[in-house]
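Reviewers of the previous submission asked for a worked example of the structure-prediction workflow described in the proposal, so we include one complete record here. The input consisted solely of the amino acid sequence. No template or homolog information was supplied to the procedure at any stage.
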Amino acid sequence: MTSSGPRPSPKRRLLTLGPAALAGIAAACVAISLSSQARRYCDAGADPGGILQLSLLLLPLTMGFAAIAVCGAYLLDRLPVVLRLSAVLLVLTVLTLVFFSVFGTLDGCPGDPSRCGPDNVPPWWPDGLPR
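From that input alone, the workflow returned the following structure tokens.
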């Protein structure tokens, strides 16, 4: 395989890995917040909003999302900065949606039937996105 360009300098690489890590941390916090809001709205789970379970997941989730973002930015280091960060943001968006659909909706867990259906997806969640 031929190289598509010169390798960026370590200083330039650090300038993209830092924002990628911050984007991963922010995406993890958004995923936790979305899941907590959905659980609180639907009154699903053992405690309102899943505070205990989601609080225990916060540290590993932020570290995992940040590591995935940094690895993605590092592996795509020969692309222009805009494309590299766009790809990282796309991956983080998909991870956030997957986390919400697995941990935020609690399918089959008893909730408030007057607010949400049996799948515990709140009505404010867009229909076109995964549930």
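Residues 2 and 78 are 12 Å apart (CA to CA). We consider this example representative of the routine output the project will generate in years two and three.
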